[in-house]
Amino acid sequence: PNDRQLSCARIHSREGQNYLAAMSAAANYAWVNRSCITYLVRRAFEKIFEKTPEEMEMHLVYDVCHNVAKVEKHIVDGVEKTLLVHRKGSTRAFPPNHPLIPKAYQDIGQPALIGGTMGTCSYILVGTHSGMEETFGSTCHGAGRALSRNASRKRLDHKQVLNHLKERNISIRVASAKLVTEEAPQSYKDVSEVVDTCHNAGISRKAVKLRPIAVIKG
Predict the structure, then answer these.
(1) pLDDT tens digits along 118-139
(2) Residue-wise over 25-54: b if at least 16 C-beta within 10 A, else e?
């Protein structure tokens, strides 16, 4: 029977199909939102630097969602099966030569975008064959919170967080002081340790390390 709180609804049931439809609508909304943000960022750069996005090489590297379920084929106990893989707190990272990743990344594997915090580095990883076997082609999608949003607001002072960023030459535009503490670097785990764990476990491979120079919140 279906779980009353939908923790394990059968996917072909009415509840399961409703869930998939709602999830797809949310994923589409998020995709359009990212597209709008990309457009507005390009327009802002074009206005300030008086160059076209193409002249500044502001190309989209990769677009991917996380916290979503996808129908995929995987090997389970030596047999290929069709599974609904729900990645919560993770993102897909398929290996090189997988048919579901774009041609441009066939030789290196699917990019996985690992966001750090507004005061720490971020990473781009690529998928591995080991990850396909061990985690259904999944890896982390971020550092993960060390403090809840409520705990961050209680323990951290937004002025100290802003000074911390300023000392590191990181510019920030934020809608409210509450967001500053909720998203402070201290509120999250060490992203480098998390990424190193995934890299050393072989479920994804480090490709690029990035550092923040500007942050927009809210």
Answers:
(1) 888 999 999 999 999 999 999 9
(2) eeeeeeeeeeeeeeeeebeeebeeeeeebe
